[in-house]
Amino acid sequence: MSSLAFTTFISCSMEPRSHDADSLVSILTDLLAHDPSVDMRRTAAMSLGKVADAKGIPALTAALSDEDPFVREYSAWALGQMETELPHHSALALITTLGDSSTQVKQAAASALRNVMPEATLSNLLRQVLLISEVSTRRAVVQALTELEIPASYSIFLDAAKDDDARVRQLALAGLGELADTRALIVFRTSLLNDPDEGVRTEAAFRLGKLGGKNDVPVLKKAVEADPTPNVHLWASWALKEAASNPD
Q1: Is residue 138 part of a domain?
Q2: Domain termination site, one of 99, 117, 135
Q3: Burial of 176 (C-beta count, 10 Å sphere; 0-12/13-18/19+)
């Protein structure tokens, strides 16, 4: 079937009669899994998302590893269109996809997870992944949690703020800041004064300026006076003015 003919076929079949649904999904999953044409696989992935039949989940999950980034992106998007909670292995595959080299694929995976999983379930899965993953995936998971702004992620961010990787720690502070939970102020203070990484200390200063108050002024003054890094000094000075004017 040519690409044009297939696209025409799909456009006429997006609302299949119930007795046609199984055959349509079967055709789409076979194309997604086996067709050598990238255009055909992309179209099949998007079409499975429009059909939103749970029978397409296994093929879409497998396609998250496709060599083509658009196939991976469309497959992640399609999984997010399902009207049922994804099986455990599909959710884990999406979480792994948060470490994809393509920003668009990462964003599609994060959106899919938000759409199809309860917050508590998603948070627990992401916590598990953080414990066992290599650094690029840990970074992607923490960044995705920041974008999702799930309140249940607070404790995950606390753990990530102690990660061996500086980028994970910085992303964790950003996530805590986006939750706007004042319990995190002590984490920002500690990181500002003690973390060995400039980026983490800069993030901590910025978050204290956004969320802190007069009680944070002594810590910020200490950072302004003692931190030798120009970037940290700049943001700590800004945060000092902001915190001094913020209500406690």
Answers
A1: no
A2: 117
A3: buried
Spatial CA neighbour of 145 closest among 109, 181, 184: 109
What would the pLDDT profile of 39-62 be if each residue is shown by its tens digit?
999 999 999 999 999 999 999 999
- pLDDT tens per residue, range 137-190: 888 888 878 877 788 889 999 999 999 999 999 999 999 999 999 999 999 999
Structure-token match 């204290």, residue found:
208
Tell me which of 117, 141, 161 is where a domain ends: 117
Surface-to-core class of residue 99, CB atoms within 10 Å of its CB (0-12 exposed, 13-18 middle, 19+ buried): buried
In a domain, 169, yes or no: no
With contact defined as beta carbons under 8 Å apart, do 76 and 64 qualify?
yes
> Could you give the number of structural domains in the chain?
2
DSSP result, 145-205: HHHHT-GGGHHHHHHHTT-SSHHHHHHHHHHHHHHT-GGGHHHHHHHHHH-S-HHHHHHHH
Same domain, 27 and 110: yes
Range of the domain at 187: 180-248
Q: Give residue 180's region: left, alpha or beta (phi > 0; psi -120 to 50).
A: left
- The pTM of this model reads 0.70
Mean pLDDT over 226-239 rounds to 96
**Token pair belonging to 191:** 């990181």
Q: Are 99 and 140 in contact (CB under 8 A)?
A: yes
Is-contact 201 231, C-beta < 8 A? Answer: no
